[in-house]
Amino acid sequence: MHRMGNDARFDAKKEQIMSEFLYLYRNPPNSPYRPDSPHQLQERLAKWTAWFKDLEAKQHIKNPGHPLASTGAVVKDRRGTVSDGPYAESKDIVGGYSIVEAKDLAQATELARGCPIYDGGGVVEVRPIHQM
Questions:
Q1: Residue 118 sits in a domain of what CATH number?
Q2: pLDDT means per 10 residues in the chain (132 residues)?
Q3: Neighbours of 22 (CB within 10 A)
Q4: Which domain covers residue 33, as residue numbers?
C-alpha cells in the first residue's frame, strides 16, 4: 500500500532540503583586478552587487559575508609561532567570503560561475559546511 500523500518521495510540494556552502574568493597576489580609478571601482562593485542581488532573488544567499582586510597573521602552532600577514606562504589571497544555500555541491558550483572575480583571474573555492 502506497501512502502517496504523506510519503516525501511522492509529495511534489515538499520543500527541498538545502545545504550551506562557503564561497572563498581568491585572487593571485599580483592580481590585475585592483581598480586603477574610482570609475573602475564603481564598475566592479556594480558587477558584484548585481551578482549578489541575483543570488538573493533566487534565495541562495544565506550570508553575503564581508571582504577581508589585507593584514593579519598566521598562528602556526601551539607555541604561538606567528608569521606576518595571511599571505606570506600563500599562492593566492583570500579576499572575502559568502555563505550560500544550494541543493548540492553541483548547484553551488554552478551558482559560483556568475561571480565577477573571474574577470581578474581570481577563483571561487566552494566548500560544503557541515552542520553540527
A1: 3.30.70.1060
A2: 40 64 89 78 93 96 90 83 67 88 97 94 94 82
A3: 17
A4: 19-128
